[in-house]
Amino acid sequence: MDFSLSESLQQQLKWAEQFVQTNIVPIELKVLHSNFTDQKSEIASLQQQVKEQGLWAPHMPLAVGGAGFDLVALGLLSEVLGQSPLGHLIFGCQAPDAGNMELLHHFATPSQQQQWLQPLIAGTMRSCFGMTEPSNAGSNPTLLQTEAKLDGDHWVLNGRKWFTSSADGAGFCIVMAVTDKTAPHHQRASMFLVPTDQPGYQRLRNIPVMGDVGSGYFSHSEIELDNCRIPAENLLGQQGDGFAMAQTRLGPGRIHHCMRWIGVAKRALNELIAYTQQRQISRHAVLSDMQTVQTWAADSAAEIAAARALVLQTAWQVQQLGFKAVRSEVSMIKYFTANVLQTVLDRTVQGMGALGMTDDTIIAFLYRHERAARIYDGPDEVHKNVVAKHLWAEQSNALSSAQS
Amino acid sequence: MDFSLSESLQQQLKWAEQFVQTNIVPIELKVLHSNFTDQKSEIASLQQQVKEQGLWAPHMPLAVGGAGFDLVALGLLSEVLGQSPLGHLIFGCQAPDAGNMELLHHFATPSQQQQWLQPLIAGTMRSCFGMTEPSNAGSNPTLLQTEAKLDGDHWVLNGRKWFTSSADGAGFCIVMAVTDKTAPHHQRASMFLVPTDQPGYQRLRNIPVMGDVGSGYFSHSEIELDNCRIPAENLLGQQGDGFAMAQTRLGPGRIHHCMRWIGVAKRALNELIAYTQQRQISRHAVLSDMQTVQTWAADSAAEIAAARALVLQTAWQVQQLGFKAVRSEVSMIKYFTANVLQTVLDRTVQGMGALGMTDDTIIAFLYRHERAARIYDGPDEVHKNVVAKHLWAEQSNALSSAQS
Amino acid sequence: MDFSLSESLQQQLKWAEQFVQTNIVPIELKVLHSNFTDQKSEIASLQQQVKEQGLWAPHMPLAVGGAGFDLVALGLLSEVLGQSPLGHLIFGCQAPDAGNMELLHHFATPSQQQQWLQPLIAGTMRSCFGMTEPSNAGSNPTLLQTEAKLDGDHWVLNGRKWFTSSADGAGFCIVMAVTDKTAPHHQRASMFLVPTDQPGYQRLRNIPVMGDVGSGYFSHSEIELDNCRIPAENLLGQQGDGFAMAQTRLGPGRIHHCMRWIGVAKRALNELIAYTQQRQISRHAVLSDMQTVQTWAADSAAEIAAARALVLQTAWQVQQLGFKAVRSEVSMIKYFTANVLQTVLDRTVQGMGALGMTDDTIIAFLYRHERAARIYDGPDEVHKNVVAKHLWAEQSNALSSAQS
Amino acid sequence: MDFSLSESLQQQLKWAEQFVQTNIVPIELKVLHSNFTDQKSEIASLQQQVKEQGLWAPHMPLAVGGAGFDLVALGLLSEVLGQSPLGHLIFGCQAPDAGNMELLHHFATPSQQQQWLQPLIAGTMRSCFGMTEPSNAGSNPTLLQTEAKLDGDHWVLNGRKWFTSSADGAGFCIVMAVTDKTAPHHQRASMFLVPTDQPGYQRLRNIPVMGDVGSGYFSHSEIELDNCRIPAENLLGQQGDGFAMAQTRLGPGRIHHCMRWIGVAKRALNELIAYTQQRQISRHAVLSDMQTVQTWAADSAAEIAAARALVLQTAWQVQQLGFKAVRSEVSMIKYFTANVLQTVLDRTVQGMGALGMTDDTIIAFLYRHERAARIYDGPDEVHKNVVAKHLWAEQSNALSSAQS
After folding, report:
1. Interchain contact B139–A (C-beta under 8 A)
2. Which residues lie below 8 Å from residue B54, measured CB to CB, with a gap of 6+?
3. Residue B292 and residue D290: Cβ atoms within 8 Å?
4. Which residue of D has its CA nearest to B296?
5. Of the four, A17, B46, B327, C46, which is 20 to 30 A from B338 by CA?
6. Considering only CA atoms, which of C379, C380, C306, C375 is closest in space to residue C344?
């Protein structure tokens, strides 16, 4: 075993850390509280600095314009960037674009790549991913209702999506739709590239989420597809491969999420420490003198460290063995890390008292929005079921081999 | 022991329950998402119905225009009203006005009562309470910085307050200020009646709290007192009695809060049940078929029931023995109930999934704003310290008497 | 609502409290660490004092030689007695005899009562209750395997029981056995009075439980019924009524258990306080000066108080409405209280450090044996299911009535 | 980063796993429930097989007769061995002997090594470590009371120790005693090698711990030193170095403990899975079909995996940087892992129901004795304080460097 990092990676992470603290954190509240459009130029200027540093789009191969980080390195960078809600956006590896880039890189035709992937990597266009539907449990793909029917050389899409993150301002949406109701469950759906200015595609609203309607990149929309006709060549990948491709997208995505959450949790812990160290509670004591606060910090630190160690180990395993072989481990880090995050955030809110309730610091924003970590991309309960099934099977295997 | 309720109280609670479900719950989201001013007439019309039913201002004696509920009855009503954020407002017993009415009823001169108490009871004016300050830990009164100096027949107030709830639209503010820095700690402060249009009194802003800037009744403001001169007769009660009066206000206030939280928690549990019973997770199952959801509901129900039983018992004890005798018990219900509430809300968010994150239901509003329950009016940690001190003393007493 | 207690009950509880602290607690470790037989005379002498005080067999009516406490009073006494593992035994209301007395009082024929009930009430005989079986989940009665077949004027019993508490030294066992495999599930079983010296009845061993094999009253046995022939008149109640009668036994039994657990929890909290107040951790501080210890005590006190209030309320409801009407509430207090107990015990062990691990104090005994509280008499999970079903049905009723 | 293991280490771990499951687990209950002396020959025969395999005393260098594992490898082996309470004993790396061997290896004179270390490494003698005292908080070394006074060429020791593990049957005890009351706190104590047959050294009793008095290796004794005279050359290391040497002993010891706990936790999880997979709860379902059980397993698996990843990372850091540099990290794994262990054990007890309460399986033994994990070697609270201090200092450093 060897937990050391290469000298060059250490340098890159150090630069990113410094950049996040010095250039991103100071503007995050302003950006989050404004209309996104008004902040675009300031964001673009920071993005330019990242590009110049060679850290832009770290998840993509060097050959196509990314920084070519492997999954472990990406995780470590994601931890740094996660300290601010703007971090990933400014480094060009923000959800949902990062996942979409990976999808397009793997499955798009050359001409699709030229049209859709290149502007994403260049950072000149944003995109969204339309999978979740309001009336169906996202964890059960067999309930998907949006349909795509082939009509001559066009697909006609009908259905409703919601929690389509960052749809506001996106150039296109990758839409998941049923193309064959009668196929085996996991071969029913396909993915489509739908330009957001296509007739029949309508962004109905930005859903108000935990107090924020949001705008631009920081929003989650409800989308209607009403006889939306798109050319046949806008099918992404093979017909019927929708779920398989979505899995491909989710695997590394969960690693990214988990490492980002580690970064969020670290931010929260640091805010707790900084605040309580200067908050007078009497003429002779500050809040951090209280054993309860010390316990919060020590518990948070341990939980974060444990989650971090497990996520990095899992990232390494995915790199070595592929996502499928460690699917149970990936489920494990999903719920474990999301719960650590929520617990840590809650302690920080409590430690900051009334101030923690206000939007004068970043903490309330994180407390509200990161609550979703235990829900999106498979709620805790679904992932625990995956892990339990795996444990049951392992034990059965152990029994079988013991008896044979 | 006798846990039965009088027939008349049962009828009153039943009417209130029906009224909350039928008339208040359906409009709550609209009111919360609008500018408060625009909703005033609709609210007033509901308030009128409550007045006609004889349930208006239930915490105030019949003689001064209230419904004359005792503390236990008030608790039971508060539980019903707590099911909607609008409940107490529509029944004329909302914080901070309810506490202010009690203060004025006990300590105001007849002329002060005429000027300030009567419009509050009539519901024609709202008020606020300026105690908490941004730069001082509220739990330590010796840190209070706002000062009032007598200058001829006027008091001159200087200082800054925040989390002054419902200041937006209030007619006056009861301000706590230091009148004698050299007095013993708990005799340093006094209370003042400050009209909100008084020069020198300025509402700087509504503080953005967990995603909401709020407006009117549903807001929390930052207030500046800059050489604000008020007549000497605006002193409320005796000079130096500020903290003692505040305690008077807080005692029953904590009972009200706790019973309101029980109502909030019940609402959350009911939303969880209603949602999961209809949410399909497969062709043959709804979400409430899952044992995990059943466990959430069963745990929530038990915790709510236990908190409720303890709060009612404490309300009865306060009635019998006075607040001072059961101060430790009141601290106990404060943190116990607030934590039950937060846990129950968290389970409901999880059970409702993505929908629970949106402001399309009341749950996200409750999740965000009721997080403050563990903070305001003394954070958990302060109340636990009160209880521990009491336990330590009890044990010492037991030891002393055993040894004598 | 009225939480006051009659003067006479207060006096009785006060006497019991004094007696437990002065006469029972000091001998409990000696009794628990000895062979039970050797301690009988000392126990009998204490029992005699209770009889003289008129508090013997408080759960039984005055008419048959008990003290005639109602369920609420019994609960309050049980709380006092629960502070020592010997409390109930010395007051003649210990499980399983107390439940057996109730069964015999309700269902036994006069001649059965003379033979079996009278010596129990007199305290000259002990008994046991044979229901749980090693190879079947106790929570599912349809899995019961012990059988009783009528052969002439005798019943022949075959099967195996375990966790038959206090069988060691008991005069008879009430055995639950299937009498009609083909009847509806809840009418398959009947109860039988089996003398422990009956041929075919064999106590195989005392099961080692959490480190203790135990002896006499403080033991749990495994029992074999091997063609055990008992006269037809030893059938208790009606054939096929086994489960219904068991429910009758369990209802008040759960109230007793819960109030006893409250007593155990109080004992643990008091031990924590007493220990930490005198344990030096430095030249200038004792352990109870630590905020963490204060938090443990405050949390434990609140949880105990809440559980207590809910259990008393439920006892009162059972008295008013009968067990069946509040079955869900009784399930609720079972798991809520058992979990409070375990949490409180765990905190006390931690607070007492190495000493808490030893059997030099009562805490390790309680920590080990009361772990069963979450398991016996229906594990948490089964009771939560009962409560959830009740909640689901209530909501459905609410919906039905809303729609009609 | 590289999480891979060498082929040879994988083979060694595989052999150990097989050996534990096949040869050790089947005899563990018999050994634990018997007098230790009666089991010595069976244990010795297993130890011989380990020696032949070259895995004996893995923590000691090859040069002195050990297997020469580094700290990470040792951790991984410890995880395997921890699955049975006999594992470490049979591999010659059991506490307290393992720590004592390390002490003697580092600090003993050649002649001391010949007399004391060689028989330990050979497995022909056992030892104990006398540090903890009954009347003093072990976490505060300044309270140590046992004294050693030089009298001519002898040291005279007086004091009392307890929780001296495995003293029953040990050949010598390493005793910590104050040699200079007036020295700075951490230089007051020294270590002494005391043969257990030395006059003045008396093993008073085996302390009953959680139901077990124990015997031989599996015991914890109370020891009296009453004018115990030992030759001057029995001083171990330098006078005044007692605490420094104890730290040396504790550092790797905590890694060992944590990895052993991981093994215990895995054992518990496996028992839960195996039991619930075969336990019928109805004609058509087994216990592991219940979502609650699945959640327990999934949570346990994730917590174990996270603790494991963090402990291994910390072991690697200790190897690279030395114990002192990662003291805070070592404290972190201590409380994090101990709490995971307790939680996992508790779930297994609950899942196994009544059977989990009995000593018919290993679970009750583990539940009882491993409760000490949160207490010995520094209770949770002390380690959290260490971590908090470290976090506070780090933040202060960050602030200092930011301001400079």
Report:
1. yes
2. B67
3. no
4. D292
5. B46
6. C306
| Cα separation, C16 vs C11, whole angstroms | 9
Instruction: Identify the CATH homologous superfamily for domain C244-403.
Output: Butyryl-CoA Dehydrogenase, subunit A, domain 3 (1.20.140.10)
Inter-chain contact D137–C353, Cβ cutoff 8 Å?
yes
B280, B350, B359 member nearest A375 (Cβ): B350
Nearest-10 Cα torsion for D391, D394, D399, D403: 170
Q: Which of residues 357-396 of B touch A (CB under 8 A)?
A: 357-360, 364-365, 367-368, 371-372, 374-376, 379-381
The pTM of this model reads 0.97
Q: Give the count of beta carbons closer than 10 Å to the beta carbon of residue C107.
A: 18
Give me the half-sphere count of Cα atoms (radius 13 Å) on the Cβ side of residue B230.
26
- Contacts of residue A291 in chain C, CB cutoff 8 Å? 290-292
Domain ranges of chain D: 7-108, 127-236, 244-403
How does pLDDT run across B174-226, given as a tens digit for each residue? 999 999 999 998 899 999 999 999 999 999 999 999 999 999 999 999 999 99
Superfamily (CATH) of domain B127-236: Butyryl-CoA Dehydrogenase, subunit A, domain 2 (2.40.110.10)
Six token digits for residue C7: 């003067």
Is residue C356 less than 8 Å (CB to CB) from chain D?
yes
Tokens for D133?
């005292």
Q: How far is B404 from chain D (nearest CA, A)?
A: 26
Whether C7-108 and C127-236 share one fold: the answer is no
Predicted local distance difference test score (pLDDT) of residue C50? 98
Cβ of residue B281 closer than 8 Å to a chain A Cβ: yes
The mean per-residue pLDDT over the stretch B99-123 comes to: 96
How confident is the model over C128-149, as a mean pLDDT? 86
Q: How far apart are the first and last CA of chain A?
A: 34
Residue of D188, D205, D289, D381 to mutate, testing the C interface (most C Cβ within 10 Å of its Cβ): D381
Contact A191, A235 (CB under 8 A): yes
User: What pLDDT is recorded for position D401?
Assistant: 64
Are C347 and C301 contacting, i.e. CB atoms less than 8 angstroms apart?
no
Residue among C137, C287, C349 minimizing CB distance to D371: C349
Q: Is A286 on the interface with B (CB under 8 A)?
A: no
A149 by DSSP, 3-state: which? strand
Give chain C positions within 8 Å (CB) of B72. 1
Give the whole-angstrom CA distance, residue D293 versus residue A385. Answer: 10
Nearest-CB residue to B385 (from C274, C294, C332): C294
Report the alpha-carbon distance of residue D393 to residue C116 in Å, rounded.
72
- pLDDT for residue B236 is more than 90: yes
Encode pLDDT of D62-99 as tens digits: 999 999 999 999 999 999 999 999 999 999 999 999 99
How many CB atoms within 10 Å of residue C245? Answer: 21
User: Does the domain spanning A7-108 belong to CATH 1.10.540.10?
Assistant: yes
| Structure confidence at residue B403 (pLDDT) | 53
Name residues 197-256 of chain B within 8 A of A (Cβ): 207-212
Q: What is the pLDDT of residue B209?
A: 97
ipTM of this model? 0.96
Q: How confident is the model at residue C401 (pLDDT cuts 50, 70, 90)?
A: low
Give the dihedral sign, CA A9/A13/A19/A20.
positive
Residues of A in contact with C295 (CB under 8 A): 292
Give the pLDDT band (50/70/90) at residue C140. confident
Q: Percentage of residues in chain D with pLDDT exceeding 90?
A: 90
D308-330 pLDDT, tens per residue? Answer: 999 999 999 999 999 889 999 99
Instruction: Assess D140–B contact: CB distance below 8 Å, yes or no.
Output: no
Q: How far apart are CA D33 and CA B295, in angstroms?
A: 38
Averaged pLDDT score across all residues of chain D: 95
